[in-house]
Amino acid sequence: MQSEVILQADKIGKYFYDPEKFRVLNDISFTVNQGEFVTLVGKSGSGKSTLLYILSTMDTEYDGTLSIHNQQITGMKQNSLAALRNEKIGFVFQFHYLLPEFSCLRNVMIPALRLGRYSRKEIEERAYEKLKMLGLEDQALKLSAKLSGGQQQRVAIARALINDPLIIMGDEPTGNLDSKNTGIVFDILQDLAHNYHQTIVAVTHDNDFAHRSDRTIEMQDGHIITTQKQF
Ligand SMILES: Nc1ncnc2c1ncn2[C@@H]1O[C@H](COP(=O)(O)OP(=O)(O)OP(=O)(O)O)[C@@H](O)[C@H]1O
């Protein structure tokens, strides 16, 4: 069965001024299919975060075109983009950005409350389901600040999943974790991709993490230099 294309970047380019104009991304083209777990790697300064920011629809100043699930994103108005982002993209960052005064359940509910598609009761049930999927059902009512770093990152993954996003974007999702928790978070992401067809694109500096993903896209000086399947 042919997988659907979830993300398509076509000749993405970007300039910064520092203070002279310089090209930070040049002619970046690739596609990501449903259920693929792709990592973006490359030396510091190669343009990974800049690219992820564009792919996440947060930066709209670039050349080329970006499509998500065959919908052209480039040129969309900011308010439509914000709605699309909340509904279709889940984010997992290096730092979990959970609200410490709220329970884990409440933290996970937030993007769904913002989306406004489900009743509060349904949202609560969905949030509980996602926490259960990540082995955190016993922690649901605890304050997020009371959890360990690894558990907090799993709550952040549950929050990223609450609206059943088309794609999860990770910006160093294990950058703040020890090796044991890195392994746990990697296994969760891989399970989501392989068993739930969740599409994932993550920037990482962790070679081991990258080598275990389905495909690495390596960047150098704003170009893609290799894109290789991992076996
Ligand atoms: N807002 C900005 N204004 C000017 N230059 C910038 C800006 N943001 C990033 N840069 C420059 O663009 C280049 C790419 O930066 P980027 O953060 O995308 O790299 P990266 O590969 O993610 O690096 P790291 O691995 O260190 O996070 C670098 O030379 C950086 O200094």
TrEMBL record:
Keyword Nucleotide-binding present in the record's keywords: the answer is yes
One Pfam family name is ABC_tran
Q: Got a GO cellular component term for this one?
A: membrane protein complex
Translocase as a keyword? yes
Where on the tree of life does the source sit, at the highest rank?
Answer: Bacteria
SUPFAM superfamilies referenced in this protein's UniProt entry, alphabetically: P-loop containing nucleoside triphosphate hydrolases
The record, for InterPro entries, names:
AAA+_ATPase, ABC_transporter-like_ATP-bd, ABC_transporter-like_CS, MacB-like_ATP-bd, P-loop_NTPase
| Protein keywords | ATP-binding, Nucleotide-binding, Translocase, Transport
Could you list the residue ranges forming a coiled coil in this record?
A: none
Which terms does the record give in the GO molecular function aspect? Answer: ATP binding; ATP hydrolysis activity; transmembrane transporter activity
ABC transporter domain sequence ranges? 7-231
In which family does this protein belong, per the annotation?
Answer: Belongs to the ABC transporter superfamily. Macrolide exporter (TC 3.A.1.122) family.
Do you know which PANTHER family this protein is assigned to? ALPHA-D-RIBOSE 1-METHYLPHOSPHONATE 5-TRIPHOSPHATE SYNTHASE SUBUNIT PHNL, LIPOPROTEIN-RELEASING SYSTEM ATP-BINDING PROTEIN LOLD
Q: What is this protein called?
A: ATP-binding protein
Origin species: Chitinophaga parva
